[in-house]
Amino acid sequence: MDTFEYARQGDVKIDRVDRLPPGLSLKPREAGVCVLAHGEVTGHRHYVKEEHVQLYANDDALFMVIRGRPATLYHEEHDPITFAPGIYEIRHQREWTDDEEPVRVCD
Asked: Do the domain assignments include residue 1?
């Protein structure tokens, strides 16, 4: 099985980083899974099922920690992506509007 250290799944970009920044809190699971993003248009989720994965967040950032063995990111409209153990920063694609402020792209 191939594993990745960075990838994009729809409007979500995942990059491996060296460490977690300070000031993060553990993000609770939703219905037993770690949800990286909700699709505002379709209602689909980008999520990881494995119990050895945790999400940490603050007002500005989201990070995924995979411990010990690979974990797979799922979404109903995209192929699954399996990531190696490590720490990953999660970013959501943004686009510029006429209001000169970036807005999050809706999946």
From this structure: no
